[in-house]
Amino acid sequence: MDGDTTLNASACPFCGGSNACAADSGACWCFSLEVPEALLALVPPAQRNRACICQACIRAFQADPKAFTARRSLR
Predict the structure, then answer these.
(1) CA 5 to CA 56: how far, in whole Å?
(2) Can you give the pTM of this predicted structure?
(3) Dist CA 61 CA 2 (whole Å)
(4) 35-59, pLDDT tens digit by residue?
């Protein structure tokens, strides 16, 4: 087993909180919010294209990309 079977797609890959994504329904908050490519690049490989980033983490990155990235590297 590769370990990906326990992935919680409804959890943000950064903070672990609910990402509240409803993309499967065709109407989601994420459709109106641009997610920076630099932030997407920070998503762990096992979670890329499988778990959405929450609004709070997107906004935190947009407000201060360097600080957000630094906090991620401490974990």
Answers:
(1) 26
(2) 0.81
(3) 30
(4) 999 999 999 998 888 889 999 999 9
